[in-house]
Amino acid sequence: MGILIEQMRREGYEMCVSPPQIVTKICPDDPKKVLEPFEEVVIDVDAEYAGTVIDSLTGGRKGNLMEMHDDSDGKTRLVFEMPSRSLLGFTSEMATSTRGTAVMHHYYVGDREWAGEISKGGGGGGERGKMVSNASGKATTFALSNLSERGTLLVETGDDIYPGMVVGESSRGSDMEVNPVKAKETNNMRTQSKEERLILSPPKRYTVEELIGLMADDEIIEVTPKSVRLRKAELDAGIRVRAAKARKKRLDAQNSNNNSSNNGAGNKKKGKRG
Q1: Domains in the chain, start-ordered, CATH in brackets?
Q2: CA count, 13 A, side-chain hemisphere, 180
Q3: What confidence tens digit (pLDDT) does each residue in 206-256 have?
Q4: Could you tell me if 99 and 49 are in contact, meaning their C-beta atoms sit under 8 angstroms apart?
Q5: Phi, psi values for residue 195, rounded to 5°
């Protein structure tokens, strides 16, 4: 998908890319169960990075380690079974964490019961939060220098910014609203600290394929011949907040119903034994 989108971009097409969705099925034996595609993943990696790979796949990505054995060349072969959706974005993450020493193969093995919510933060952590712009204009060095202390920037000075655009990855696990176009206050007083030159690290540039694995369910990729941007599907911050509260309320109600039904089933079994 990433290769196709990149080719179309170079040919002059513009598009928005939404998060890919897996095709689920209803279990024929139990209509209440939802099935999703699972894959067998085989990774050959240097023994020193085997723990890193295991930690990444068996945590929030819901992978199960099936086999693990070493060979005489100092390599370790790891075999996992995991949901297909868990592999989105993992290729680039693995290349970074193993310094390019890992080789991965995977193939579809069948439909299994829905594994639940996954997180791609690595090591069982949550999703990476984003820094989302709440203003429009040109990014300024003054504003970006402050934001660089809170995470990794995806833009640089002079880039066009608009509300709802993702300008960086947050070091926190949740999104934060930021102002990357804020200018430095000017006055007639000169001090040594204010005259110091601000130097920013180069922004992190993702390819289309990497952004597909990075984006959350409420984000889309804006692709044009000149740029590739990550943005929120809903640009209005107020609407996003209300939607997040409603989604959380639905999840809490669903969890409460599930716990009630489980407790009811347990009490029913106890009554039968009595």
Answers
A1: 38-117 (3.30.70.240), 130-232 (2.40.50.250)
A2: 32
A3: 888 888 888 888 899 999 999 899 999 988 888 888 887 887 787 677 667
A4: yes
A5: -85, -5
